[in-house]
Amino acid sequence: MCDSADGNYVWSVREQGSGRPICSPEGYPFSFSCEEDARTFAARYPPGSVTIVRAQEPGYLR
């Protein structure tokens, strides 16, 4: 279950070797507000080929 109260974080899926984000056909990087959704998306790729990275949303102030 996704919980936005976890803190204002986003998850992205990146290529394991280069660290480049996985992008849509239009060139926009995929980002997810829920780690579970990012893991589901990453499961589409061969094991070990992508990694999930958590980052604080830009503009979030504590």
What can you tell me about this protein's structure?
Helices cover 13% and strands 26% of the residues. The protein is of the alpha+beta class and 62 residues long. The protein has one domain (4-56). Strands 2-1-3 form a three-stranded antiparallel beta sheet, covered by helices on one side.
Order of strands in the sheet with most strands: 2-1-3
Number of strands: 3
Q: Which series of helices and strands comes N to C?
A: EEHE
Beta-strand level of the residues, as a percent range?
A: 25-35%
> Which word captures the global form?
globular
**Mean of pLDDT:** 85
SSE-based structural type: alpha+beta
Q: Which bin fits the share of residues in helices?
A: 10-25%
Any idea how many domains? 1
Write the layout of secondary structure elements.
Elements: E1 9-15, E2 31-32, H1 35-42, E3 50-56
Antiparallel strand pairs: 1-2, 1-3
The gist of it:
By secondary structure, the protein is of the alpha+beta class. It has one helix spanning 35-42; strands spanning 9-15, 31-32, 50-56.
Structural descriptors:
alpha+beta; 62 residues; 1 helix; 3-stranded antiparallel β-sheet
